[in-house]
Write a structure and sequence with these properties.
single chain, about 240 residues, alpha+beta, five-stranded antiparallel β-sheet, three-stranded antiparallel β-sheet, 4 helices
Amino acid sequence: NVSVFENTKVAGVEEGSIPKVILADGREIATRQVILTVNAFLSRFGFASASNVAAIHSYGALTRVLTDAELENFKNVRPWGITATHPSGATLRFTPDHRIFVRTDIDFATNLNIPQKKFDRSDFYLRRAFVRRFPELEKVDFEYKYGGLISFTGNTRPLFGEVAKNIYAGVTSDGTGVTRAAILGTYLADLIQHRDSSELDYIKRAYHPSYLPPEPLRTLGATAFLKYKDLYAGSEL
């Protein structure tokens, strides 16, 4: 009783008593309900309730496997991970296969997709964060690098519930994606199946993103705010 469509590009969603998923090739899939698990990309579907969801870009890199000589300072050290106390600070990990992972550099995602220029620029900030903490490994190159989205809202509250008729979504925020996504997914299913609980009542009451101004004020304000955060993050970057 389930139809699975893999590697299927979606161009849009139409609300209604029988909502439709519009595919890139023009075909339509009709269904009783649609659940959108697209996080910050929800804003691209045109729902008014998603207008207060935005995103930032952040970047990460993973070194090559460290040599025995480079591992001298890591003798008997178990794999670990650490997050900065400042929201703009770097995340670091020492992996089980003896690599160093670093994530840092935040900028506002006006267009969601990362321009190549921004991606290339992140090299400087990733190297700086790495060398500040491991100066003895300065010669170690990054083998992998990536950039991605972190959704956010003005008050850090997720968006949750019915965003249009028979169309539901849960959008996490502020970087706690895995934890909040699990919570939102569980209670979104309960909401659709009409399973009431005190926890669901709280989520429906409290999970409402605050107002964000339209463009270009949104990008100007968010960029200025992030620069201010970077200024006071200091050596945590």
